[in-house]
Amino acid sequence: MAIKVTPLTDAVGAEIEGVDLSRHVDDDAFAQIHRAHLDHGVLLFRGQDITPEQHIAFSGRFGEHEIHVMSQFLLPGHPELLLISSLKNEKGEAIGIEDAGRYWHSDLSYNERPSMGSMLYAMEVPPERGDTSFAGMCAAYDGLPENRKAELGKLRATHHFGYRWNKEAAKWGLRPAMTQAQLDQTPPSVHPMIRTHPETNRKLIFAGGFCSGVIGMDEKEGEAFIEELTAFSTQPEFVYVHKWRAGDLVFWDNRCAMHLASDYDPKYRRHLRRTTLKGEKPY
To answer: What's the CATH number where 188 sits?
Structure first.
């Protein structure tokens, strides 16, 4: 299978052409896709028409699926798929997370073994806004002064899902409270702020919106430190902004890319589904 890989920016992202994900992807094409994922961190596949089963099968070739803790937003019958959606059920309840990712973050960074990657497929998108921005954290690390690299290399941060969930619930008013069982499943984890990518051996900044503090700093100092680091890491030269179309599938590497979802007018429908893959303990 002949595929074409076109970089989207110098720092992060590439579009993959010549692949129909509703059909079997042969081993040669899969190897090219895997290589492009490592080289570019974010891959875009336009014009796809795939079933939940095909979505799960393709993403599963890259690793083991992670089942999201907010189980009420999983696709019935397919727990590997998390719904990112503004749609409601017959009771008027949200079937997916309506305000997902409106802050710079890496998915599941709060786990002891943070996610390797996420694969998000768009079925319905608003005609305006609702973009997703991706920041290349290897490029951001390379852009740091040497003394800053040394400083960050000595620091560790606490990542906590409940911290961010409650913060977003208060901000947007769209999220239900987490149950005690969900809180118990997501205790805080501590990770280095500079990690090494396990497949490319490139160093990168590992922080983002699930960071609830920096070890050795008080709460306000740690929050300001993370905000400053996030602002540096998400400068335009490190970022690709994706404008969604129905049929887009985007596969990003959570080990080396942060992302941010913009808001949109709630009068429009937005419906996407996501698989997430288990990763490794950062070092």
So the answer is: 3.60.130.10
In this structure, the strands spanning 117-124 and 78-85 are unpaired
pLDDT along the chain (283 residues), means of 10: 93 98 97 98 98 98 98 98 97 95 98 98 97 98 98 98 96 94 97 98 98 97 97 98 98 98 95 98 97
Greatest Cα pair distance, the chain, in angstroms, is 57
In angstroms, the CA 168 to CA 99 distance is 8
Give this prediction's pTM: 0.96
Dist. CA 129–CA 86, nearest whole Å: 14
CA gap 212, 274 in Å, rounded: 25
Which residues lie closer than 8 Å to 234 by C-beta, 6 or more apart?
104, 133, 135, 140, 258, 260
Cα separation of 100 and 263, whole Å? 9
100: helix, strand or coil: coil
Q: Is residue 243 part of a domain?
A: yes
Give the containing element (helix H, strand E) for 138.
helix 137-142
**Residue range(s) defining the domain that contains residue 244:** 4-277
* Local structure of residue 133 (DSSP, 8 states): E
